[in-house]
Amino acid sequence: MLPVTRCDEHLYPVPKFDLGKGDVKDFMNELKGFHEQFYDCFQRSESREHFLKFMAGQFSPLERKSIEPIALAVKDGNVRAMQRFVSDAPWADDKILTKYRSFVNDDLGSPDGALIFDESSFVKKGQDSIGVAKQYCGTIGKVENCQVGVFAAYVSENGYAMVDKRLFLPEKWFTDDYIERRKKCNLPEDTVFLTKPQLAVEMLSAVNQENVLPFKYVLGDSIYGISPDFIAAVESLPDKTYLVSVPKDTRCWLKRPMTITRSYRWGGKTRTKTLLVDPDSKPLTVEELARNINDYFWYRRQVSEGTKGPIVYEFTRRRVILSAEGLPQKTVWLLIRRSLGDDPQYSYFISNASSSTRLKTLVWLSGLRWAIEQCFEEAKTELGMDHYEVRKFPGWQHHMLTCMLAHFFLWHLKIRMGKKSAIYYAVAA
């Protein structure tokens, strides 16, 4: 169940999606109007027709919403033609995304909006689908043969939507053993290996440079929290605040230790080395720090309403100096969350928010990530986001793009109709 609102605890509440099937009288006519906005993104009229039919199939009551059942279910559908459209026909992908994000801004845009980065996994059989490999699959919580996508979502007081995507390609896909598979999957020749945080940086840069969708906050889990590339990318953007998870072994100081820089010669050159003045001034792990904080400093907050009653956590925060290779680096907020009970479980977050930032703001930000999880849940449950059977790189991109557009289209209907809904406090359970 989604979190419950508490108006004194957050900067803004986030609505949930609650549009019912009976709320829209002329659904297909509205869908055609939405699709007309993308007509100039396709070269042929046949592609425009397939684009509409494919998305119409995503909204259908079909049990499985992959290409073949959709093509068989829609009027005048053709399986082979639709397969070619999704995997091989030219799409103006960048143009579609730019138009799409302008629509997201029209309905959801806010100067206090947040970009959220997260992965979603898709279990797959066989070895021929682009990017498939034995890797951690978050959907089932273990290593399995799957594909992994990195996604960006947008959330504001008006709602939430996915706004970009990248397929993660494991490093072995760039070895000589995979040359033929890369060709069969139509992977662009200039594609290079990028980590998940580096893919997120690409999306962050694209959204920022496009300057269509306003945002103030950037959120992510510990994969991004421990990535120097990701943190540096956010910090390079003026007036952006990040809050990201970090693992329990992250090291820090409560007080910046003194350092000294010494010169030495090596290889005929003069070099410098920075050392701690007091070698015994070793950093603590955030776990050690958390377990030694007196109960006086923990603030109890109800963060959601579960099936068995209210879910409550306790929070505290500290200004800390992060350690990198045993030396002091940047000063950040460390937010700590713990569960109640005799054996509390801890979660840790860091943020570059200003020193005057209040605890309630950090608590609120720590929970906004539920919005991207809700995007995945709704797109998979209602739109067949995980039903695809395409093998080629363009096919994966196009399937995910239509899922993003379809999900947002439903949000647009809700907003256009001015439908009021329950408001939910954005702190995840």
Compact overview of the structure:
Pfam families: DDE_5 (PF13546). This is IS701 family transposase. Residues 1-9 and 421-429 have low confidence and may be disordered.
Protein architecture, described:
The chain has about 425 residues and is α+β, with helices and mostly antiparallel strands. The chain has two domains: about 15-220 and about 370-425, no CATH class; about 250-365, no CATH class. The chain contains 13 helices and 16 strands. The protein has helices spanning about 25-35, 45-60, 65-75, 80-85, 95-110, 180-185, 195-210, 220-225, 230-235, 285-290, 360-365, 370-385, 395-415; strands spanning about 15, 115-125, 135, 140-155, 160-170, 215-220, 240-245, 250-255, 260-265, 270-275, 285, 300-305, 310-325, 325-340, 345-350, 425. The strands form three sheets. Strands 2, 3, 4, 5, 6, 7, 8, 11, 12, 13, 14 and 15 form a twelve-stranded mixed sheet that branches. A two-stranded antiparallel ribbon has the order 1-16. A two-stranded antiparallel sheet has the order 9-10. The radius of gyration is 24 Å and the shape is globular. It starts with 13 loop residues before the first strand and ends in a 5-residue tail after the last strand. Residues about 1-10 and about 420-429 have low confidence and may be disordered.
